[in-house]
Amino acid sequence: RAPMVYGPGCRANFLSLAKAVQKSVPLPLSRVYNKRSLLFVGNLSSFVQHALKDQNIKGVYNVCDGDDL
């Protein structure tokens, strides 16, 4: 399962968070210490294309953009 995927046309939780940030709404995150992985839709697409082409790919992959926030 991919982490939260973002990109053009995104909706749901990511869109709500982006709108709150644009409006400078104070977010109740001061006591949140866990990190979240994000994945750009283009990176997800590239990974899926690569996985479909390479017959040697096996296993479980945690795909993300690389920097947990």
Which residues sit in consecutive blocks of at least 5 with pLDDT less than 50?
none
| Span between termini | 18 Å
Strand-residue fraction? Answer: 5-15%
> What oligomeric assembly is this protein in?
single chain
The rough form would be described as: elongated
Mean pLDDT: 84
The largest pleated sheet is described as: 2 strands, parallel
* Helix segment tally: 2
Rg, Cα atoms, Å: 15 Å
Structural class, by secondary structure, is: alpha+beta
What is the element string, with H for helices and E for strands?
Answer: EHEH
* Percent in helix: 25-40%
Biggest sheet: strand arrangement: 1-2
E-strand count: 2
Please, could you describe this protein's structure?
This protein has 2 helices and 2 strands. With 69 residues, it is α+β, with helices and mostly antiparallel strands. It has a two-stranded parallel sheet.
Quick summary:
This protein is 35% helix and 9% strand. It has 69 residues and is an alpha+beta fold.
Fold blueprint:
Elements: E1 4-6, H1 12-22, E2 38-40, H2 41-53
Parallel strand pairs: 1-2
What attributes does this structure have?
alpha+beta, 69 residues, single chain
